[in-house]
Amino acid sequence: MEVDILSEDENSMLHRTDVQFEVAHEDATPSRLSVRDSLAAKINKDSDEVVVHKLDTKFGMRKTIGYAKVYQSPQSARQVEQDYMLERNKIEIEPDDDDGAAEEA
């Protein structure tokens, strides 16, 4: 599996970079997690900082076009991204400290 970056757009307000990429693959469409790990390795980031939003493979082709958001830190990703997208990308969702204190009291 080979990952090529097509475009990168800096979004400093949300502490992230929006990345369009292309994945060339021999077999079936690779999983979201394997694409995330390959993309993270390509741009020298930790896997928890990369959130893959879209993978689109045209029928019969061995190329997939995708869209991902690369955050400066995992905490930035948790603050901005919705929970279902974090779950899809297997990024741990940390519970709020306030809720834990309220349950103990």
Structure, explained:
It holds the Pfam family Ribosomal_S24e. It comes from Haloquadratum walsbyi J07HQW1. This is Small ribosomal subunit protein eS24. With 105 residues, this protein is of the alpha+beta class. Helices cover 30% and strands 34% of the residues. The chain contains four helices and four strands. The chain has helices at 32-42, 74-80, 83-88, 97-104; strands at 2-11, 16-24, 50-57, 63-71. A four-stranded antiparallel beta sheet has the order 1-2-4-3. Strand 3 and strand 4 form a beta hairpin.
Report the portion of residues in β strands: 25-35%
CATH classification, class level: Alpha Beta
Please tell me what the overall shape is: globular
Q: Give the helix level as a range of percent.
A: 25-40%
| Gyration radius, rounded | 16 Å
Unreliable spans: none
Spell out the helices and strands N to C: EEHEEHHH
Structural class: alpha+beta
Largest sheet: 4 strands, antiparallel
CATH architecture: 2-Layer Sandwich
Distance between the termini: 52 Å
* Total number of helices: 4
Mean pLDDT: 89
Count of structural domains: 1
CATH superfamily (homologous) name? RRM (RNA recognition motif) domain
Cross-sheet strand order for the largest sheet: 1-2-4-3
The number of distinct β-strands equals 4
Which fold name corresponds to the CATH topology? Alpha-Beta Plaits
